[in-house]
User: Fold this.
Amino acid sequence: MTLIQNFLSIRQSLPGEVKLIVVSKFKPGDSVRELVENTRHLDFAESRVQELLQKAPLLPEAIRWHFIGHLQTNKIRSLIPFTKLIQSVDSFRLLKEINREAERQGKVVGVLLQFHIASEETKYGFSFEESCQMLESDEFKGLSNIDIKGVMGMASFTENFQQVRKEFKSLRSHYEYLKTNYFKESETFSEVSMGMSGDYKIAVEEGSTMVRVGSLIFGER
Ligand SMILES: *Cc1c(COP(=O)(O)O)cnc(C)c1O
Assistant:
């Protein structure tokens, strides 16, 4: 199957309201261009700032770039002008740095809070408890240049789909908890970004609003 057929078959398998974010990391800009020109799809994601900064200026400006990798504070400044949504905010410290830089650039930056839901130690993210502590702190309430639009998480890399389902369920339920307790007034806190090539169907069944799919579209990296 071609790139475009892969994309279309995944798009068609998703409920209409679920957003598809095409993960283009390690893939050439020409493939992104081919998809944009043939399908008008505009949501893409990268996991390294360097790679995003190389690709974005050569591709249509209408593309909405999502950032999904671990973000170092010294890269925030250069990332902000090129990204629509930083999905991988994994610490309070990082959130504060993003706010500070956004303020400096006169912007409000959209972000998702990334949660550690997998059993592997290697994945980044808040614990549920840490996020509540942060949201209750006075320091958090002073941050006015970030717009928290929801949550993101990656399930364990395992064939045990019961476990994957359990992890997605826990993220969806923590999202509901946060919405009720901390974001009642927010009109933008509405996204649950979960599901990748190997598990996006389970994620959608468990209430994902946004899936991030790379290798099923572009082939293995
Ligand atoms: C690479 C990556 C994806 C996409 O992974 P595939 O298995 O290729 O679909 C999704 N989310 C994050 C955070 C990633 O780093």
In short: The first strand starts at residue 19 and ends at 23. The radius of gyration is 17 Å. The CA atoms of residues 94 and 221 lie 28 Å apart. The pocket of pyridoxal-5'-phosphate is lined by residues 23, 25, 47, 68, 154, 196-198, 212-216 (CB under 6 Å).
